Amino acid sequence: MNLNFLKNPKKIELHYSFVDDSHTMDAFIRNNCERELLSIVKEITYILDIDVNIETEAYIEGGLKELWSIASNNKFVIGVITGILVNVLSTYLTKDNELTELQKEELRLKIQVLKKELEESNEEKPIIIGNDIYEIFNKNLKIIKHKSNFYKNIHSYQKVTKVTSVILTDNNEPLIPPHTVERKDFEKFILKTDELPPFIDENATLEILSPVLKKGKYKWKGIYNGEVISFSMRDKDFKFQVINSKVQFKNGTTIDCVLEISRKINDIGEIYNSGYAVLTVLRIRDENAVEDTPQGKKYLMKKQAKRNQLNLFDNNDNKNDN
Length: 322
Description:
CATH 2.40.50
Protein backbone atom coordinates (compact mmCIF):
# COMPACT_ATOMS: atom_id res chain seq x y z
CA MET A 1 0.00 0.00 0.00
CA ASN A 2 1.75 3.14 -1.23
CA LEU A 3 0.10 5.93 0.70
CA ASN A 4 0.90 8.78 -1.65
CA PHE A 5 -1.83 7.35 -3.91
CA LEU A 6 -4.54 7.96 -1.31
CA LYS A 7 -6.61 11.04 -2.10
CA ASN A 8 -8.23 12.69 0.91
CA PRO A 9 -8.34 9.74 3.32
CA LYS A 10 -10.61 10.52 6.23
CA LYS A 11 -12.02 7.42 7.89
CA ILE A 12 -11.46 3.82 8.86
CA GLU A 13 -14.36 1.41 8.47
CA LEU A 14 -14.26 -1.75 10.55
CA HIS A 15 -16.86 -4.31 9.48
CA TYR A 16 -17.76 -7.31 11.66
CA SER A 17 -19.60 -9.93 9.57
CA PHE A 18 -21.94 -12.34 11.40
CA VAL A 19 -23.21 -15.87 10.91
CA ASP A 20 -26.76 -14.52 10.71
CA ASP A 21 -28.55 -11.45 9.38
CA SER A 22 -28.58 -9.62 12.72
CA HIS A 23 -26.93 -6.28 13.34
CA THR A 24 -26.18 -6.60 17.05
CA MET A 25 -22.97 -7.50 18.85
CA ASP A 26 -22.15 -8.35 22.45
CA ALA A 27 -21.37 -5.00 24.07
CA PHE A 28 -18.49 -6.31 26.20
CA ILE A 29 -16.79 -7.96 23.20
CA ARG A 30 -17.22 -4.86 21.03
CA ASN A 31 -15.95 -2.50 23.74
CA ASN A 32 -12.94 -4.72 24.41
CA CYS A 33 -12.13 -4.80 20.68
CA GLU A 34 -12.46 -1.03 20.41
CA ARG A 35 -10.14 -0.53 23.38
CA GLU A 36 -7.44 -2.68 21.79
CA LEU A 37 -7.71 -0.89 18.44
CA LEU A 38 -7.52 2.53 20.06
CA SER A 39 -4.46 1.34 21.97
CA ILE A 40 -2.84 0.43 18.65
CA VAL A 41 -3.62 3.89 17.25
CA LYS A 42 -2.24 5.47 20.42
CA GLU A 43 1.03 3.54 20.05
CA ILE A 44 1.33 4.50 16.36
CA THR A 45 0.89 8.20 17.16
CA TYR A 46 3.34 7.88 20.07
CA ILE A 47 6.00 6.31 17.84
CA LEU A 48 5.58 9.04 15.23
CA ASP A 49 5.13 11.82 17.79
CA ILE A 50 1.98 13.16 16.12
CA ASP A 51 -1.44 14.30 17.34
CA VAL A 52 -4.74 13.17 15.85
CA ASN A 53 -8.38 13.40 16.88
CA ILE A 54 -10.56 10.30 16.51
CA GLU A 55 -14.34 10.35 16.57
CA THR A 56 -16.78 7.48 16.17
CA GLU A 57 -19.84 7.78 13.95
CA ALA A 58 -23.19 6.01 14.11
CA TYR A 59 -23.00 2.30 13.35
CA ILE A 60 -24.06 1.04 9.95
CA GLU A 61 -25.92 -2.22 9.41
CA GLY A 62 -24.58 -5.10 7.35
CA GLY A 63 -23.31 -7.17 10.22
CA LEU A 64 -21.94 -4.28 12.23
CA LYS A 65 -19.85 -1.49 10.72
CA GLU A 66 -17.91 0.97 12.84
CA LEU A 67 -16.71 4.25 11.38
CA TRP A 68 -13.79 6.15 12.86
CA SER A 69 -13.24 9.66 11.60
CA ILE A 70 -9.66 10.91 11.94
CA ALA A 71 -8.64 14.56 11.92
CA SER A 72 -5.20 16.20 11.83
CA ASN A 73 -3.69 19.53 10.82
CA ASN A 74 -1.56 17.57 8.33
CA LYS A 75 -3.76 15.68 5.86
CA PHE A 76 -0.91 13.29 5.07
CA VAL A 77 -0.89 12.16 8.71
CA ILE A 78 -4.41 10.76 8.23
CA GLY A 79 -3.24 8.64 5.31
CA VAL A 80 -0.29 7.36 7.33
CA ILE A 81 -2.39 6.45 10.39
CA THR A 82 -5.18 4.77 8.42
CA GLY A 83 -2.77 2.91 6.17
CA ILE A 84 -0.67 1.61 9.05
CA LEU A 85 -3.74 0.53 11.04
CA VAL A 86 -5.25 -1.41 8.14
CA ASN A 87 -1.87 -3.05 7.47
CA VAL A 88 -1.39 -4.00 11.12
CA LEU A 89 -4.88 -5.54 11.35
CA SER A 90 -4.29 -7.72 8.30
CA THR A 91 -0.68 -8.85 8.93
CA TYR A 92 -0.14 -12.24 10.55
CA LEU A 93 2.15 -12.65 13.53
CA THR A 94 5.48 -14.35 12.86
CA LYS A 95 7.71 -16.57 14.96
CA ASP A 96 10.41 -13.90 15.15
CA ASN A 97 8.37 -11.02 16.59
CA GLU A 98 11.20 -9.92 18.87
CA LEU A 99 13.90 -7.80 17.29
CA THR A 100 17.67 -7.94 17.59
CA GLU A 101 19.47 -4.79 18.73
CA LEU A 102 20.65 -4.20 15.15
CA GLN A 103 17.09 -4.46 13.83
CA LYS A 104 15.88 -2.09 16.55
CA GLU A 105 18.49 0.46 15.53
CA GLU A 106 17.55 0.12 11.86
CA LEU A 107 13.87 0.69 12.69
CA ARG A 108 14.74 3.70 14.87
CA LEU A 109 16.49 5.26 11.87
CA LYS A 110 13.47 4.55 9.65
CA ILE A 111 11.20 6.19 12.21
CA GLN A 112 13.36 9.30 12.20
CA VAL A 113 13.16 9.44 8.40
CA LEU A 114 9.37 9.03 8.47
CA LYS A 115 8.99 11.75 11.11
CA LYS A 116 11.05 14.12 8.98
CA GLU A 117 8.99 13.32 5.88
CA LEU A 118 5.79 14.02 7.79
CA GLU A 119 7.12 17.38 8.95
CA GLU A 120 8.17 18.34 5.43
CA SER A 121 5.14 16.94 3.55
CA ASN A 122 2.99 19.37 1.57
CA GLU A 123 0.98 19.56 -1.65
CA GLU A 124 4.13 19.43 -3.77
CA LYS A 125 5.83 16.80 -1.59
CA PRO A 126 3.36 14.12 -0.47
CA ILE A 127 4.36 11.51 2.06
CA ILE A 128 5.37 8.18 0.53
CA ILE A 129 5.47 4.99 2.60
CA GLY A 130 7.04 1.79 1.33
CA ASN A 131 6.30 -1.67 2.69
CA ASP A 132 9.46 -1.66 4.80
CA ILE A 133 7.99 1.10 7.00
CA TYR A 134 5.14 -1.17 8.10
CA GLU A 135 7.73 -3.40 9.77
CA ILE A 136 8.23 -0.68 12.40
CA PHE A 137 4.70 -1.21 13.62
CA ASN A 138 4.23 -4.91 12.94
CA LYS A 139 7.33 -5.68 15.03
CA ASN A 140 6.32 -3.41 17.92
CA LEU A 141 5.58 -5.64 20.91
CA LYS A 142 2.87 -3.36 22.30
CA ILE A 143 1.05 -3.33 18.98
CA ILE A 144 1.52 -7.10 18.65
CA LYS A 145 -0.03 -7.64 22.09
CA HIS A 146 -3.01 -5.33 21.46
CA LYS A 147 -3.62 -6.95 18.07
CA SER A 148 -3.47 -10.38 19.71
CA ASN A 149 -5.97 -9.25 22.35
CA PHE A 150 -8.30 -7.93 19.62
CA TYR A 151 -8.37 -11.19 17.69
CA LYS A 152 -8.53 -13.24 20.86
CA ASN A 153 -11.71 -11.36 21.78
CA ILE A 154 -13.49 -11.95 18.49
CA HIS A 155 -12.18 -15.52 18.20
CA SER A 156 -14.03 -16.32 21.41
CA TYR A 157 -17.22 -14.78 19.96
CA GLN A 158 -18.58 -17.38 17.54
CA LYS A 159 -21.01 -14.97 15.90
CA VAL A 160 -18.22 -13.14 14.01
CA THR A 161 -17.25 -14.82 10.73
CA LYS A 162 -14.75 -12.25 9.46
CA VAL A 163 -13.41 -8.75 10.03
CA THR A 164 -12.86 -6.28 7.21
CA SER A 165 -11.08 -2.93 7.33
CA VAL A 166 -10.97 -0.26 4.65
CA ILE A 167 -9.94 3.39 4.28
CA LEU A 168 -12.71 5.80 3.26
CA THR A 169 -13.07 9.37 2.06
CA ASP A 170 -15.22 11.88 3.91
CA ASN A 171 -18.10 10.70 1.71
CA ASN A 172 -17.55 7.06 2.72
CA GLU A 173 -16.06 6.08 -0.62
CA PRO A 174 -13.40 3.33 -0.35
CA LEU A 175 -9.85 4.33 -1.27
CA ILE A 176 -8.29 0.88 -1.18
CA PRO A 177 -9.52 -2.70 -1.66
CA PRO A 178 -10.96 -4.05 1.61
CA HIS A 179 -8.59 -6.04 3.84
CA THR A 180 -10.47 -9.07 5.17
CA VAL A 181 -9.46 -11.59 7.81
CA GLU A 182 -11.57 -14.76 7.93
CA ARG A 183 -12.41 -16.58 11.17
CA LYS A 184 -10.23 -19.53 10.15
CA ASP A 185 -7.24 -17.17 10.22
CA PHE A 186 -7.93 -15.41 13.55
CA GLU A 187 -5.50 -17.68 15.39
CA LYS A 188 -2.66 -16.48 13.13
CA PHE A 189 -2.93 -13.10 14.88
CA ILE A 190 -3.01 -14.44 18.45
CA LEU A 191 0.10 -14.88 20.57
CA LYS A 192 0.44 -18.51 21.65
CA THR A 193 2.21 -17.51 24.85
CA ASP A 194 3.13 -14.38 26.75
CA GLU A 195 6.63 -15.75 27.31
CA LEU A 196 9.60 -14.37 25.39
CA PRO A 197 12.94 -16.11 24.82
CA PRO A 198 15.06 -15.66 27.98
CA PHE A 199 17.81 -13.07 28.08
CA ILE A 200 21.22 -14.42 29.08
CA ASP A 201 23.54 -12.05 30.95
CA GLU A 202 26.97 -13.67 30.73
CA ASN A 203 28.58 -10.98 32.87
CA ALA A 204 26.09 -10.70 35.73
CA THR A 205 27.21 -9.78 39.24
CA LEU A 206 25.01 -10.71 42.20
CA GLU A 207 25.56 -9.62 45.79
CA ILE A 208 24.34 -12.54 47.90
CA LEU A 209 21.81 -11.64 50.58
CA SER A 210 20.34 -15.04 51.45
CA PRO A 211 22.15 -18.19 50.26
CA VAL A 212 20.42 -21.58 50.50
CA LEU A 213 22.51 -23.88 52.68
CA LYS A 214 20.51 -27.10 52.35
CA LYS A 215 19.12 -29.34 49.62
CA GLY A 216 15.82 -28.42 48.00
CA LYS A 217 14.33 -26.12 45.38
CA TYR A 218 14.57 -23.02 47.52
CA LYS A 219 15.17 -19.57 46.12
CA TRP A 220 18.25 -17.53 46.87
CA LYS A 221 18.11 -13.78 47.33
CA GLY A 222 20.57 -11.26 45.96
CA ILE A 223 21.03 -7.80 44.52
CA TYR A 224 21.26 -7.51 40.73
CA ASN A 225 21.68 -4.10 39.09
CA GLY A 226 20.54 -2.44 42.31
CA GLU A 227 17.37 -4.55 42.60
CA VAL A 228 16.67 -7.28 45.15
CA ILE A 229 15.73 -10.48 43.29
CA SER A 230 14.93 -14.09 44.10
CA PHE A 231 16.69 -16.60 41.90
CA SER A 232 17.23 -20.32 41.38
CA MET A 233 20.73 -21.76 41.65
CA ARG A 234 21.12 -24.21 38.74
CA ASP A 235 24.88 -24.56 39.04
CA LYS A 236 24.95 -28.03 40.62
CA ASP A 237 28.68 -27.92 41.36
CA PHE A 238 28.32 -24.64 43.23
CA LYS A 239 25.26 -25.91 45.15
CA PHE A 240 27.24 -28.99 46.19
CA GLN A 241 30.10 -26.80 47.43
CA VAL A 242 27.73 -24.59 49.40
CA ILE A 243 25.82 -27.49 51.00
CA ASN A 244 29.12 -29.11 52.00
CA SER A 245 30.46 -25.86 53.51
CA LYS A 246 33.15 -25.47 50.83
CA VAL A 247 32.01 -21.90 50.23
CA GLN A 248 31.70 -19.38 53.04
CA PHE A 249 29.51 -16.31 52.70
CA LYS A 250 30.36 -13.00 54.34
CA ASN A 251 28.70 -9.62 54.36
CA GLY A 252 29.18 -8.27 50.82
CA THR A 253 30.02 -11.60 49.14
CA THR A 254 29.26 -11.42 45.42
CA ILE A 255 29.33 -13.88 42.56
CA ASP A 256 30.08 -13.26 38.90
CA CYS A 257 27.83 -15.59 36.95
CA VAL A 258 25.84 -16.46 33.84
CA LEU A 259 22.30 -15.33 34.67
CA GLU A 260 19.20 -16.44 32.77
CA ILE A 261 16.37 -13.89 32.92
CA SER A 262 12.89 -15.18 32.00
CA ARG A 263 10.66 -12.55 30.39
CA LYS A 264 6.98 -12.10 29.57
CA ILE A 265 4.70 -9.54 27.93
CA ASN A 266 1.89 -8.09 30.04
CA ASP A 267 -1.58 -7.14 28.77
CA ILE A 268 -0.42 -3.76 27.49
CA GLY A 269 2.62 -5.12 25.65
CA GLU A 270 5.29 -4.19 28.17
CA ILE A 271 8.14 -6.63 28.82
CA TYR A 272 8.83 -7.60 32.41
CA ASN A 273 11.26 -10.01 34.06
CA SER A 274 9.36 -13.02 35.39
CA GLY A 275 12.20 -15.05 36.89
CA TYR A 276 15.95 -15.42 37.38
CA ALA A 277 18.28 -18.43 37.41
CA VAL A 278 22.06 -18.66 37.85
CA LEU A 279 23.30 -21.16 35.26
CA THR A 280 27.05 -21.04 36.03
CA VAL A 281 28.98 -19.35 38.82
CA LEU A 282 32.18 -17.97 37.28
CA ARG A 283 33.88 -16.57 40.40
CA ILE A 284 33.28 -15.62 44.02
CA ARG A 285 34.30 -12.27 45.45
CA ASP A 286 34.54 -10.80 48.91
CA GLU A 287 36.48 -7.88 50.35
CA ASN A 288 39.64 -9.99 50.70
CA ALA A 289 39.78 -12.30 47.69
CA VAL A 290 38.55 -13.30 44.23
CA GLU A 291 38.31 -17.01 43.42
CA ASP A 292 37.49 -18.47 40.01
CA THR A 293 35.36 -21.61 40.13
CA PRO A 294 36.38 -24.76 38.16
CA GLN A 295 33.09 -24.72 36.27
CA GLY A 296 33.59 -21.02 35.56
CA LYS A 297 37.03 -21.65 34.08
CA LYS A 298 35.58 -24.46 31.94
CA TYR A 299 32.75 -22.21 30.71
CA LEU A 300 35.13 -19.38 29.79
CA MET A 301 37.49 -21.80 27.99
CA LYS A 302 34.62 -23.13 25.88
CA LYS A 303 33.51 -19.59 25.12
CA GLN A 304 37.03 -18.59 24.05
CA ALA A 305 37.40 -21.72 21.89
CA LYS A 306 34.13 -20.90 20.13
CA ARG A 307 35.28 -17.31 19.57
CA ASN A 308 38.60 -18.55 18.13
CA GLN A 309 36.74 -20.90 15.79
CA LEU A 310 34.55 -18.08 14.51
CA ASN A 311 37.63 -15.90 13.98
CA LEU A 312 39.24 -18.74 12.02
CA PHE A 313 36.22 -18.97 9.72
CA ASP A 314 36.25 -15.19 9.23
CA ASN A 315 39.94 -15.22 8.34
CA ASN A 316 39.44 -18.06 5.85
CA ASP A 317 36.54 -16.17 4.23
CA ASN A 318 38.71 -13.05 3.92
CA LYS A 319 41.51 -15.08 2.30
CA ASN A 320 39.06 -16.61 -0.19
CA ASP A 321 37.74 -13.15 -1.06
CA ASN A 322 41.27 -12.02 -1.79
